Amino acid sequence: MRDHKELGFTMVFISVLLQYLGVSCSSFGLLEDLEKKTIKNEKNKTNPWCSELPDDIIELILRRLDVLDYIRFYSVCKLWRSVAVGMDLGYSLCCRGLPWLMFTCDAKTQTYGFFSLSESRKYYIPLPTAGGLAHCCGSSQGWLLMCNSASGGCFLLNPFSGAEIKLPRLSPPLAYKVILSNPPVSDNTNDFMVVAMNATHLVFCRLGDLKWTLLHQPESSYSDAIYHKGKLYAVNRKDELWVFQLQGPRSPSARKLKIPPVDLDPRPLGRSDTEMMTRYLVEPKEKLLLVYGFFHLIRTHGYDSTQTHRPCYCDCGCDSPHNFIFQPQLCVKFKIYVLDEDNISSGSGEGGYQWNVQESLGNQALFLGRNTSKSLSATEFLGLKENCIYFTLNFYKKSFDEFHYSGIYHVENGMVESCFPFDPDTDMGPPIWITPSNSI
């Protein structure tokens, strides 16, 4: 297992390091050659300062690094690299650092594109094992859920270490979200569980299971789920919040909590071709937040002199091609509730809990989308905007082509800015937040 980890991470490490230095590299054969040269050049070189640093001090340093700094640490010398590979730092690395935005997944070239918020730059990581018909269905704890739409086969993939964890076949074959109970590191695999959601089912499995266990089949499909204080909380599109106890017996217990009514309709800003409301569950500082998001696409028009044969999108009713092109604009609004778990007896409705509107996130920033929702403190990460929601959005409507967007919503004033400072690639796929991890 360690050899697989070292080989996989070494290939990713060299790829990212070369891009950091401004060198293009598209061949794994070249990567292997570079790794051999690096090891050969280090055989007769030992930095006295590096060799005299105790292993326990090295471990303390490593546990405070995000993955990018881990890669730089890894590249200092052969001794530090061997110590880094030998330490089981999966959980530590998974819990630190800003999420990256995965903005493309090209099965033909077997390459994934990532955007680093902390460095404001793109990286492309080759992943030969992720090719074929595998489709990325979401991320959790630094892992991607990959599903084969034809066979139903699925597995977890760590794009930063190259490690894979095989899972039972899914039926229906695709999911749109995955939730891991904890990072799958070596000392907690007995408690490790995978929860997957699709349009009709909520299922889970443990490592070694041959099939998925149906957790709940609601009247309405689920929007999001999260582990909170050892229990799984899941909210559906019928505004029902279910709480599941998965530990112990195979038949999990479940109960339903009341959800507050919400009105997020910002449509006075324009005529809507399509709109979507979704729900997210987030856990900042051991509190449970329920976040409603309303997304509204508006048809607008732009003029492009290079596009002379596009159909008319205006309201004049003509059928003549001209230079007006369709440019969707996005209107976004969020509303945040916090679950008051300290006043259970005074709450109303099912479950006896009270929900309170939260007008500000303070110094926290939320990451929402097809990832397991995440909350981070802006005081701990340079460049992270406080009181903001970093979100991704994927529209699949008949009146639009596929529409993908990643943005930053400012809770204080409702303003939205793009968090991807580059022109979208022509092959840009559904964006997904993922926190880099080297766990296996």
TrEMBL record:
Residue ranges occupied by any F-box domain in the UniProt entry: 47-83
Pfam families from the UniProt entry: Beta-prop_KIB1-4 (PF03478), F-box (PF00646)
PROSITE patterns for this protein: FBOX, PROKAR_LIPOPROTEIN
InterPro entries (UniProt xref): F-box-like_dom_sf (IPR036047), F-box_BR-signaling (IPR050942), F-box_dom (IPR001810), KIB1-4_b-propeller (IPR005174)
UniProtKB keywords: Membrane, Transmembrane, Transmembrane helix
Transmembrane regions listed in the UniProt entry: 7-31
Cross-referenced PANTHER family: OS06G0659700 PROTEIN, OS07G0183000 PROTEIN-RELATED
Protein name: F-box protein At3g56470-like
